[in-house]
Amino acid sequence: MSVSNTATPRGTESGRGIAPDTVRYNREVPDLGNPVFDISDLSIHYGSNKAVRDVNMKVGPRQITAMIGPSGCGKSTVLRTLNRMNDLIPGARVEGRVTYHGEDLYASDVDPIEVRRRIGMVFQKPNPFPKSIYDNVAYGPRINGVRGNMDDLVEETLTKAALWDEVKDKLKESAFALSGGQQQRLCIARTIAVNPEVILMDEPCSALDPIATLKIEDLMYELAAEYTIVIVTHNMQQAARVSDCTAFFTAGVDDAGDRYGSLVEFDETAKIFSKPADQRTEDYISGRFG
Ligand SMILES: Nc1ncnc2c1ncn2[C@@H]1O[C@H](COP(=O)(O)OP(=O)(O)OP(=O)(O)O)[C@@H](O)[C@H]1O
Known about the structure:
Blueprint lengths: L36 E10 L2 E11 L4 E5 L6 H7 L10 E9 L2 E2 L7 H7 E4 L10 H11 L6 H11 L3 H4 L12 H13 L5 E5 L7 H14 L4 E5 L3 H7 L2 E9 L5 E10 H6 L4 H7 L5
Parallel strand pairs: 2-10, 3-8, 3-9, 6-7, 7-8
Antiparallel strand pairs: 1-2, 1-4, 4-5, 9-10
Helix pairs in contact: 3-4, 3-6, 6-7
Bound molecules: adenosine-5'-triphosphate.
Keywords: ATP-binding, Nucleotide-binding, Translocase, Transport
Protein name: Phosphate transport system ATP-binding protein
GO molecular function: ATP binding
């Protein structure tokens, strides 16, 4: 697989047409001409259940793409296809196509371990290793055989994760001694320590208080200068605040009575939250549904 970072730096264009209280960041108009991921006609089965159907969307480089929608509509399932985490679920099967920089992510010669190094993941509940703060960050680089000054790498990574100032005097202490928000930033540091291109985040703030949440959002915005981020969130304000593009999913029931998730609409976040094309999106974002 080739990796090319051809995105232009983040711009400063302002104004998205969404409610002013949701706009915290100035974003550039998303460029999807040279996507990191191109998802076409994607369906995901769990055993005989076709749980998510016919998803088509793109993820632009160094952008934040949000996935929103009611519980069970398939957001996490689609997110997991982007770094082949679904491979680890018995009975899970992917149909359709997911390309990563134009190459089939599910081709037989693609190494899923390497995929997961390049495309890291942060989970809902902060899950640091039962190790020191330092070792949480150094763990990935060490097992990847990274040489060089580990102290520098740890400092640089914790700085990028906006955590260095808070932990620099207690690097040898257990990660569990940190607050939930700090633990989540440590997990983000652990993810970026192995130099990925993409960070997938599955409801990274759902276990955090509002202040810790805003810190993570600020961090996401900073990180998007360098990394491509895809976030699943239940918090629509969060999607509106931080993302460049938004995918709205919904859950339905087919003629056979089987429940399934599908993508309703994918567009620039500004458009989704001001002039959605589909009535179901409008109903959801205005709180009339879900
Ligand atoms: N490991 C699994 N095995 C079997 N079915 C699963 C599995 N994970 C998810 N599903 C099913 O796939 C569908 C989509 O679930 P998924 O968790 O992706 O939705 P979601 O939108 O992320 O939900 P939530 O917002 O509640 O986390 C659901 O019907 C769910 O039951």
